[in-house]
């Protein structure tokens, strides 16, 4: 072969894409300087091309070769038997020291893998040997079971016995092996580390299978397998043995634990050469314990490559210190998924794990910390930068991972984790220096901001972890791939045998995982414990066939007609015995041979399975009709088609897909897969009665990128609308109020539309907001950076201040402090904290069987916060103190949100704002009110200068948040809130909605603290918005509104202005038959959209030039440009208020320096000199900011 490939230069090279794993080729070995037959095991992506990991089948060596050094193996050379033979020590099983970290005890007992010391001793024996001899005892699965003998200084040593004598191993006959003479049980072999006997006779020799040195080998082995010996040329060279004069190499090098060599290769060498069965061998006790631990959650696992699971913590491939720390923290694992992920990750291999526990950081933290304890990294450049990097989707998950690292670093040496949270301030990234840290936890956006100023940050990186991969790729795919490119370039530089590892964990498969595996990973271990996600990876074709219920059988026959021609194995699932019988009878009448199975069937599962297999093997199409409850007993996994005759729920759907698992495609496929490559197919019959589980299946099919018919879209929309209606009694979504948007409405449990009976149950008294342009706010409880609870302080007379003073004076008298015997829910009580008394309301009372039955949950009705106190602390509250309505209001600052699409504020921002504003007086402009919620923009901290009778503006809260770098502009917020609050929900009894007089609403609130919504008067059928002003809405507006409703719907309109013109944006989709009429003081717009007529008749506050005004209709809106007759700024748009018209804050040009809220201690706010209260300058103005 050497002469052939050296002489003939024209031998065919193999293209990279044609080289397949598991195939034998001819490669040129740089070490041996010759052409060798090699088995391709894995592919490694390098900067200069692909490297192939190969096993030389005639030399028992591993090597890496480029594609240019690989040739096709001719048939003549392929027929020659491989010279390398797999061997393992006969009946010799490893022992290890089992440590009970909680009890601080240790015992020697059976193990699943060889200890490092045993491997080093084995290596030392072979290196010192001058002769090696092996006697073969049996052959199992092409692996030679041997007794290995070495000669060292003229002394012959049995390696098997030597390992046993030194307590590295024990003898244990394999199950079914004849002639076992083991007289010592596993328990007798266990030695307590605290009391090892002084003289150990060595019972292991008694337990060894009887085989004298000179005894002949069993005759059933046949010729050519008698014995073997060799004399190595040098200790470092390959060891050879003679088998009946046929020289074959047994091993090339003795395997070692993963150190400086590639871990992925070495984890394969240990079971292959040292003792292949040892990893799978354990005592009965071990096996029972394994089943107990793993069986708790074991259901399904899909593996791209075989992994021996570590089902108990003792046997896990983790450092001893880490195991002890896990045990001390009451760790109950490893879980089913962890038992498969840990061995692969601890071996330094790339790993992709998709599981229900895919968001659990303990999937990767223990093995990564174990790897960092090894001394691999001394060859790295002496620069700042981490060895391991964990990318999380958001700051909250990053904080959780960081806290876990701090907890478990106690079991590791010299581990310094760092959490990086950078804002958008450039100086923060440029000033950050990270030295001496091994692990960094951050988010994609934060890392990219850091890399802009420190391009060499990843130069030492060896382990990259992608946490919650589906979230990372759905929200930040571009940023993640940019980071992966940085990592690829950093690891492309020569770095010796340092590990290059990527671990990706999540709960869902994502389409971006495929390019991640192809372009950035090296033959990863893929672990999927979710059958639905495995079906996506396995390219199961999902088909939805719409039909009406009465035609399902006809559709089924059409589908089966195709499968009959292709001899497919088909399962037809339904959820009732009646349908099984009906389908079976129909198939029989149409000459289709089928089986049936349901809970009332007389034929048992074994009988059905046997007939199922015989049908297919005899060339008859196999069709089985069954109910879902029969599938577990049958255990079918080799079906090619699954037909869902009854629409499945999410749980049943996964169970049905598992019956296709044998036909999942095992490798990564492109997204555009040829239909012929999809061996497995799932067909869902969609009918008008399938609404119950439609959303669940819809989102799965969308996630799987399957083709979805319009019928399923419509059915899902109807179900979601119904589900939203069911939330009508729930609170209004907090995210919607705080940021103007809810990103996951389907999963959100709260309401996303106005409910008058809930949102308007308690309104803010009108006199509390006498001038909405300027109100005084006292924030008392800070929920987060933009949401607070506090009081609106009246400028003339603060009623609460008087009540609070009287209440403190009342309870100062000991006789007035009367404790409550029986606490009732929703009742007001008094609570004395030091010298301060509060009005509180009981919101939750404990159940009688609870441990802390005396604890009750209360709400401070004048502050907004909640707390748990002892019931005996509550005091009877006189009626005179209950007449004042609760003063706490919810305050939300508009037009600012967290950076990086975060859904929650970083605690740094909240802490900063809390320290800045709590308990301090602020002035704010009210944008909108709803019930007891107030949206403000801006909100300014002020200081009163009594000697000068002036207020000084110190800071703007929105500007303070932006200055931290952790907040960004949210221009859509106000528009979204105004749109939400102008919704007109249907009111009972068919009454028309008319504006409510603010004074009447206030009068009701003065009478009771929680007034019911009256429905018997026109005034009580109020809009969902409390108008942020103190005027009474005129009758003419109501009349105009009624006329407009008769003529058509009023479209939402946003407006903004400059000195020359006013721009109106009429929000109307795909307008037809549009018409716009301009007058000097009026503009009328009308159009049709989606079958509805829309009319807007606007009476302008000032005059315009009708001839120069224009209207342009676009796809989503109509833009009306009004040219002002006189240049200047209008104080409002319309003469009369219109709830459908609002300011467009996205296009508003006014700067903050031009507003009355000038920020900075150097600028004084008007009023004029001599005026005590700054509201006076604007009380006489009737301007409206939103018109």
From TrEMBL:
InterPro entries from the UniProt entry: CS_dom, DEAD/DEAH_box_helicase_dom, Helicase_C-like, HSP20-like_chaperone, P-loop_NTPase, SNase_OB-fold_sf, Tudor, Znf_CCCH
Pfam family, one: TUDOR
Signal peptide stretch: none
Domain Helicase C-terminal residue range list: 555-716
Any single GO BP term: regulatory ncRNA-mediated gene silencing
Catalytic activity line of the entry: ATP + H2O = ADP + phosphate + H(+)
The name this protein goes by in its record: RNA helicase
